[in-house]
Design brief:
The chain is α+β, with helices and mostly antiparallel strands.
């Protein structure tokens, strides 16, 4: 084998070694040919022509997270708050992410930061505290519209915490306590009104029926004697009326049937 042939084989082997590339499952290689975009290659094994082809950037297609923070941002009703949020995003167009912007990771973070402050400035504090899902969706839509031209899709945004000044926390706590006390008093007043209506109805019944009032008196005396075991002295007139009521009650009660046969005269 001649020396020339050996040199040629060595050069071919080196070219093959320089041309063979491997991309992982989550990676895409953006290839430029003579300085112009050629193709997005991967995953797996792919070939490059030395000198002619250049890998501009290897893009990671996995879901990324970016933490954003807005400190002392003013809400629509001029309350200084601190908000922490997480942005979940991923690259869906490797060509745009590699060619249209220099550093898409940093750009996503900057856009998310400014969008968070814009959202806080257009939202009142009460709405921000009570309806975080709406704020999350608004942020996701706003950030996604700005990053979409770079090939970056925003999956979701989640607000972790909304920090408010301690003085405002105390005021809100007192307000909530006052609201609970007001509700409790309203409930108590409603219950007292219902009780009063029942008492009035009972008084009207006792006023229209003397026997009902006397039976109620008997019941009260029975309850007092049952619980305490004491002797209760009552006026003669009251005892007479109670005795009449007892006799009337016994007379009206059904009598048990007698067991013996009627007697006959002898």
């Amino acid at each position: 084998m001649s020396v020339v042939l050996i040199v040629i084989l060595v050069i071919v082997a080196l070219i093959l070694l320089m041309s063979i590339r491997i991309a992982s499952e989550w990676q895409r290689a953006v290839v430029l040919r003579l300085g112009r975009f050629h193709k997005v290659k991967g995953p797996g094994l792919y070939l490059l022509f030395p000198i002619v082809d250049v890998v501009a950037q290897v893009i990671d297609l996995r879901i990324m997270t970016t933490t954003i923070t807005a400190e002392q941002a003013l809400t629509r009703d001029t309350v200084a708050v601190g908000v922490d949020a997480i942005v979940f995003w991923h690259v869906e167009d490797a060509e745009s992410a590699a060619i249209r912007i220099a550093n898409y990771r940093e750009a996503v973070e900057r856009v998310a930061q400014t969008s968070l402050r814009e959202m806080i400035g257009s939202t009142e504090l009460s709405r921000l505290l009570a309806d975080r899902k709406t704020a999350d969706e608004q942020l996701r839509r706003t950030i996604g519209e700005k990053t979409g031209t770079w090939g970056v899709a925003v999956i979701s945004v989640e607000i972790k915490d909304v920090g408010i000044p301690r003085e405002l926390q105390d005021a809100m706590s007192r307000q909530a306590q006052a609201e609970r006390e007001k509700d409790a008093r309203v409930t108590l007043a409603s219950a007292e009104r219902e009780i009063a209506q029942q008492v009035v109805a009972a008084a009207e019944l006792y006023g229209s029926s003397q026997h009902a009032l006397q039976l109620r008196q008997m019941n009260l005396l029975y309850e007092m004697n049952k619980e305490r075991g004491t002797t209760v002295l009552i006026p003669t007139e009251m005892a007479s009326s109670l005795g009449a009521v007892v006799g009337l009650t016994q007379a009206l009660a059904p009598q048990p049937p007698t067991g013996g046969a009627p007697s006959t005269a002898g």
